[in-house]
Amino acid sequence: MTEPELPPEVVELGDRVFALLDEGRHEEAEPGLREVLRSAERVLGPDAPVTIALLDDLGGTLYQMRRLPEAEAMHREALARYHRSAGVDHPASLHCAHNLGTALVMRGEREEGLALLEDTLERRRRVLGEHNDTATTVGTLGAVLFSLGEHARGLALLEGAHSWFLADLGRQHPQTMDVCGNLVAAVYESGNRARARGMLTQLLSDYAQVLGERHPTTVATRARLARMRF
């Protein structure tokens, strides 16, 4: 029996939506993403991998727009569907669990979010081993722990994630630069301000090369470096 497929016009819409998301244009992408998700639920079914991934993507889009209650709801529903269809330890389930844990922390539900991130890290280490997805949770958990006052473990996790991404993806990969930004803050707050300024100077140069001088992230990093000089 042939598996159902999304109509070509829906696939084309999805391509446009994800191009917008790649450019950081989340508000423009959201309506189209919802439309693609509705089509996937109707044509493929609610528990199809593509449908659940789209639901999780919608949660991530809402998270970027700081619509945190809605983001949490989307991630929770996606995680429930993944658990039902693929199992708790499936990489897709763990990806969604990471997203939900992050959204919970950002929303202020720190105890539940932190517990979920800890559990996700343990499972990713067991299921995936040394892997970029594992390092992503290491870096996120490190940033959360440092912000909550667990400076020693938080800094160690951030250093570990940054070292992994540097070696595996290179200095100018988005994941490396993201975790570097969090590591800079931890290093600065730990008192090693000269190292933090040096790292941020290099990060600013990387953002300018990769994103452009006028990109909001480049501009914000330049302002951040200026503040560090005082």
From TrEMBL:
Highest taxon of source: Bacteria
SUPFAM superfamilies assigned to the protein according to its UniProt record, in alphabetical order: TPR-like (SSF48452)
Protein name stated in the entry: Tetratricopeptide repeat protein
Organism field: Umezawaea tangerina
